[in-house]
Each structure stands twice: as C-alpha cells, then as structure tokens.
Write a structure and sequence with these properties.
Layout (H helix, E strand, L loop, with lengths): L11 H8 L6 H14 L48 H8 L1 H5 L7 H9 L10 H7 L23 H5 L15 H6 L8 H12 L9 H5 L9 H7 L8 H5 L7 H21 L5 E2 L2 E2 L6 H4 L27 H13 L1 H20 L4 H20 L5 H16 L6 H20 L5 H18 L8 H15 L3
Antiparallel strand pairs: 1-2
Helix pairs in contact: 1-20, 2-19, 9-13, 13-15, 13-17, 15-16, 15-18, 15-19, 16-17, 18-19, 18-21, 19-20, 20-21
Bound molecules: heme C (4 copies).
Length: 476
C-alpha cells in the first residue's frame, strides 16, 4: 500500500499537511473505509497489563539485518501472497527517514553542541542518554553480535518497536497467531495503549529516559507528539485488512488511537510529576512540564495576556502544559460526560496546586491517574460513528471559541486533532471528496499555518482560524 506521498522532512505533522498543502494519503482513506466498516463491530480483545517496552525486554535483539531478507520483510514492493506486505524494510529505509537517521543525527554539529553544553563526557553517539531514544539501545548482552547482526547505527530499527526477536524470529512466519508471537517477545504495537506507551517513551520520555529542560536549554528541540497523526506519518508499513484481525490483531480507527494517545500522554505527564527523579530542577519544578511560552516571550512590549477560564490562574504565573488534558477532556465529553467534567475540575485544581501551591499536586496526580486507568477500557471500546465525530469536532471548536486554546501547545494539539477529524469526516462519508479537498486547502491549512512556528504563534490568529473551520463544518 503505497499511501504516503508527502514529504516528511521538518515538522511533518504541520508542514506536510499544512503549509505545503500536500494531500492526506488518499488511498489510505479508501482503504480505511473498507476496514472500519467491516471490522468496527468486532469485539475488542481484552487488554492485558502494560507489556515491557522493547528496550527492557528479556530477549536478544537480532538486528535489522535479521529482518531484511527478500523473502521476509525486505521485498522490493508489497506482496500479496503472505499475511504481511513484506516490504516493511524498504518502507522503513526509504520513507521512515526520521527513525532510520535517528542515530546519524547524533554525529552532527547540533548533537555535539547539545552534548558539550551539557558537559557530557562521552560523545553523543556513545552516550546512553542520547542512544536510548535515537537508536534501538538494549543492554550490551541483549544484542546479537555473531556476524555483526546487531548494529546500533541502524537507529530506531524494527526491534526498537517490535521487541527483541530472539524467541519469535524463527517461529513467527510459520502460521503463529499474534498471541503466540507476543508470548515469544513480540511487542503488541497493534494495541493502542501499548503503542502509545512505546512511542511516548521516546517522544516524551519515561522513568528511564527523558528530555528535560536542561536538554532543551542545551539545544534539544521541543517534543511534540500526537499518536494518530504520527502513526500515519511514520509512515504506515502495515495493512489492517481481513487477515490482520483474523490473526487476533486490533485495528482501531484514527479517532480512537488519537483519544487513547491523549489519555496515555496525560498519564505520562502525571507520572513525570510524581517521579522524584524528574519532577524537580533544583528549587524549581521541572520546567518542560509547563507551557514554554509562559516564560519564553518578549518582555519589552506590552503583552496581551489573556485569561484561561479553566485554569483559574491570573497573569504572571507559569502554567502547566495541559494540551493533552484539554484533548482528552473533549474525547471524554463524547464517551463519558461525567468523567469529562471531573477531569475539568481536577485539571483546575492541578493548575492551582502546580502553579500556586494551593492543594496537594501529588495526591491529585495520583487520583487522575487512577481515573485514566478506569477510562482506558472505555476508550478502547468506543465505537466512533458519524454522530461521535460530529460531537467531537463541535466540542473542540466550541472550546477553541471559549479561549481555551490560547496557549500554543493547546492550539497545536487541537489543530492536529481537527486534521484527523476532518479526514475521518471524509472516511465516514460526512463530506465528499471535493468538499474535503476544499476544506483541507483552505480552512485546515490556514489553521495549521497558525501553529507551524511556536515562536510566531498568535493566539488571536489561531482563534480566527478555528472560527473559520467551525463555520465551514457547521451543519455537516
Ligand atoms: C526521551 C528521548 C530522547 C532523548 C533522551 C534524546 N532525544 Fe534527541 N530527539 C528525540 C525525539 C523524539 C526527537 C524528534 C523531536 C521532534 O521533532 O518531534 C529528537 C530530536 C533531536 C535532534 C533534532 C533532530 C533533527 O532531525 O533535526 C537532535 C540534534 C537531537 N535530538 C539530539 C539529541 C542528543 C545529542 C541527545 C543526548 C544528549 C538526545 N537527543 C536525547 C528524543 C530524544
Ligand atoms: C517506530 C516504531 C516501528 C518501527 C521502527 C518499525 N515498526 Fe513495524 N509496526 C509498527 C506499528 C505501530 C505497527 C502497526 C501495528 C501492528 O501491526 O502491530 C507495525 C506493524 C508491522 C508489521 C505487521 C503487519 C501485519 O499485517 O501484521 C510488520 C510485519 C512490521 N511492522 C515489520 C517491521 C519491520 C521489518 C521493521 C524494520 C525494518 C519495522 N516494522 C519497524 C511500528 C514500528
Ligand atoms: C527508540 C525511540 C523511539 C521510538 C520507540 C519511537 N520513535 Fe519516533 N522518533 C524518534 C526519534 C529520535 C525521532 C527524531 C529523529 C530525527 O529527526 O532525526 C523520531 C521521529 C519520528 C517522527 C518524525 C517526527 C518529526 O518531528 O519530524 C515520527 C512521525 C515518529 N517518530 C513517529 C513515531 C511513532 C508513531 C512511534 C510509535 C509507533 C515512534 N515514533 C516510536 C525515536 C523514537
Ligand atoms: C518557568 C519558566 C520556564 C518555562 C516554563 C520554560 N523555560 Fe526554557 N528557560 C527558562 C529559563 C529561566 C532559561 C534560562 C535562560 C538563560 O540561560 O538565560 C531557559 C532556557 C531555555 C532555552 C535556552 C535558550 C537560551 O537562549 O538560553 C531553551 C531552548 C528553552 N529554555 C526551551 C524551553 C522549552 C521548549 C520549554 C517548554 C517545553 C521551556 N523552555 C519552558 C525558563 C522556562
């Protein structure tokens, strides 16, 4: 399925679909129509406890060279005679360029400067601090050294996501069920919660690795992630077709992936707030958990500070970056209105605890995490139909009008969400091809352009763009 036509250099989420006006992968759209309508009604398999991430699993990593055989995953083009496409390696090398070059980035000037600024003793390409996210970096004794099979230079290779292949490599192509492969060490990338934990482990961080404000201060780019969009942009090298679900794999739709991605992102932020190794920077709390622009803005001109009702905070106070909370809340308004209201209240209390020291931030973080654990199965069971899509876009756009997305990160996440939602309007037949093209070319690209550069973000401009999209979608 050659669905990816756009350029993914730079900030793909915003650039590929926004400023350049490039099209969404249309064949993917047609394909998803088939698979959502056929399989959406299948019961979702029960979710097990969070599996161990590939980097920390018990199995040896066999190296990309063990996957790329032409009769395995290294076929030049997609093949139809087996369950999987078999050209995954070629897709990864040619189109998943960010992951394939992730290690090489550590050799460049930017990386050397970051590392020097931090006073690191090792070079970045030998430093676990960097390799943990810029490569598949299991412990040394978990790497297949025979025939130089495992190469750290491969960057974020197959097993960084799919798990060390020591036990599943031989048997996995001989009719094993998905469950059997998982038992043998395959990571369940099809399960949205597990996938979110995996991607966020590098795209936000976890207890073992984290891009903190020191790393950003040293020159590391800020992290920005949205699971549904990034899954598409990675790009897809799989086809959730009939045999896919028959083998016992989950094929959730984009909106469900988005919602679960937001829930897990909130959970990870809260975990960082609770983690004594990550939640402090000397006298300060860890600053990456806060809205960057709360501190980073010019001071020599009058600022037009705007209140955000939901936070209850006044001017001159650094706010938490609550973008994922804001998105999760909108998903919950469709799935469980009571839980949405509770999250709104808890978020307000969390803001006041984290910024003004009123209340117990740790206790709140713990209780919101417990709520999320209860809500995840609900999100997993969510059937995203036409009515749900309409409700969701209305909820997000109403919230934009009430001034809740005046922080850059909030607007950025809302814009990415709307991009996925409008695309799903097309998939669900709420709009036709021509309308989709026109919305994408006008309202959507205008909106995406307003969040393209965090340093030039104008909340009023973004609000006007949300308004235009709202008008355009009204009644659809
Ligand atoms: C927690 C995971 C994590 C850690 C730790 C980490 N990085 Fe990154 N790094 C990322 C991710 C994810 C991106 C892509 C960010 C984006 O654009 O969304 C990135 C981007 C970069 C970029 C920009 C890449 C480009 O294509 O322009 C450089 C340079 C970089 N990292 C260097 C380093 C160095 C040097 C270290 C160690 C001192 C390091 N990183 C540690 C996850 C990490
Ligand atoms: C950044 C993470 C990541 C990397 C790197 C990655 N994959 Fe995947 N892969 C995924 C995700 C996510 C899926 C979709 C969920 C699923 O099918 O498990 C997937 C699906 C697959 C599938 C399943 C297709 C099916 O129909 O069941 C195969 C096969 C596969 N990948 C092979 C590879 C190979 C080979 C490589 C390396 C050349 C690779 N992947 C690299 C994340 C990754
Ligand atoms: C082992 C760490 C790791 C894992 C796991 C991982 N990524 Fe990444 N990813 C990176 C790094 C590092 C970069 C940036 C590399 C660069 O720009 O040179 C990146 C870049 C990307 C980009 C391009 C982003 C940009 O700003 O240009 C996308 C899209 C992406 N990842 C999607 C995913 C998805 C989806 C998953 C989960 C299925 C995932 N990644 C899992 C480390 C990881
Ligand atoms: C609570 C205030 C605060 C927040 C929130 C904050 N920063 Fe900072 N940032 C600072 C301070 C203070 C410095 C140090 C300035 C100096 O060295 O002169 C700094 C320095 C930096 C630098 C180095 C720039 C330079 O010229 O020295 C970067 C880059 C940076 N921050 C990025 C970010 C990003 C990205 C975020 C959001 C994820 C963020 N900051 C959130 C206060 C903050």
């Amino acid at each position: 399925m050659a669905t990816r036509s756009f350029d993914t250099t730079g900030r793909p989420a915003l650039r590929a679909l926004g400023a350049t006006g490039a099209a969404w992968p249309r064949r993917l759209a047609l394909f998803l129509v088939v698979c959502t309508s056929t399989f959406a009604s299948l019961p979702q398999p029960a979710r097990a406890a969070d599996p161990t991430l590939p980097q920390y699993g018990p199995d040896k990593h066999e190296g990309v060279s063990s996957c790329d055989g032409s009769t395995c995953h290294g076929s030049a083009g997609p093949r139809n005679d087996r369950n999987v496409l078999q050209n995954e390696y070629v897709t990864w090398v040619e189109e998943d360029r960010h992951h394939t070059r992730a290690y090489k980035v550590l050799l460049n000037k930017d990386s050397l400067r970051i590392s020097r600024n931090l006073g690191r003793k090792q070079k970045p390409h030998q430093d676990d601090l960097c390799l943990d996210c810029h490569a598949d970096n299991p412990p040394k004794d978990k790497r297949r050294t025979e025939n130089n099979a495992f190469q750290i230079e491969d960057g974020v290779g197959c097993e960084a996501c799919h798990g060390g292949a020591e036990r599943y490599l031989r048997p996995h192509d001989s009719g094993n069920t998905h469950a059997k492969n998982i038992e043998l060490g395959l990571y369940p990338t099809d399960q949205p919660v597990a996938r979110a934990r995996l991607c966020l482990s590098c795209h936000f961080g976890n207890r073992q690795k984290f891009v903190d404000h020191r790393l950003m201060g040293a020159g590391h780019p800020r992290q920005s992630f949205e699971l549904a969009l990034f899954s598409i942009l990675q790009p897809y090298h799989w086809e959730p077709d009939e045999d896919y679900t028959k083998r016992g794999k989950q094929a959730p739709n984009d909106i469900k992936i988005w919602a679960i991605g937001q829930a897990v992102a909130v959970d990870e932020v809260l975990d960082a707030m609770l983690d004594p190794k990550r939640n402090r920077m000397g006298l300060f709390p860890e600053l990456v958990l806060y809205d960057c622009h709360a501190c980073h803005h010019p001071i020599d001109k009058k600022q037009d500070w705007q209140p955000r009702q939901s936070t209850g905070l006044g001017p001159g106070v650094a706010r938490l970056n609550d973008a994922s909370f804001l998105m999760l809340m909108q998903a919950l308004r469709v799935v469980d209105a009571g839980a949405a209201e509770k999250l709104r209240k808890d978020l307000r209390a969390l803001h006041q605890a984290a910024s003004e020291g009123r209340g117990d931030a740790q206790a709140l973080a713990t209780s919101v995490r417990a709520d999320i654990a209860r809500l995840l199965p609900k999100l997993e069971a969510w059937r995203v139909d036409k009515a749900a899509l309409r409700k969701l876009s209305k909820a997000i756009l109403d919230e934009a009008m009430s001034g809740e997305y005046t922080d850059y990160a909030g607007s950025e996440q809302a814009a990415m969400a709307l991009q996925t939602i409008v695309y799903n309007y097309l998939i669900e037949g709420l709009i036709d091809d021509a309308t989709y093209d026109s919305i994408e070319g006008r309202e959507l690209s205008k909106l995406l352009a307003t969040v393209q550069d965090p340093d030039r973000f104008d909340p009023n401009g973004a609000k006007a763009a949300f308004k235009q999209l709202q008008t355009r979608l009204a009644g659809r």
